[in-house]
Amino acid sequence: YVIYTSGSTGQPKGTLLTHAGATHYLQWAIATYRPFPSAVVSSSLAFDATLTSLLAPLLCGAKVELLPEHDTLDALRQRLCDPTPLGLVKLTPAHLEVLGQQL
């Protein structure tokens, strides 16, 4: 599959990743992050980091919650304050910084 990265130029360019690489990465993620009863996807489905928060839990039979793409940070903050436990939340450093100020 192809991911797009800005690299050092700031211009998006496609980078080809193999299915074998994705499979190995998901096997590692499952072994490392397990167990997770549920996970939340707070990033775009086109974002490469979403591979972990979407596919790894599904491969383990866990529930995945997709947050709305509009006002994602507010929806994520509300979900993190919900008492229902989450096993996996994958965030960018920028999201973590903003949420840390709000929580």
UniProtKB/TrEMBL annotation:
Species the sequence originates in: Xanthomonas prunicola
* InterPro entries named in the record: AMP-binding_CS, AMP-dep_synth/lig_dom, ANL_N_sf
Q: Which domain of life is it from?
A: Bacteria
Keywords (alphabetical) are:
Phosphopantetheine, Phosphoprotein
Ranges for domain AMP-dependent synthetase/ligase come to 1-96
What's this protein's name? AMP-dependent synthetase/ligase domain-containing protein
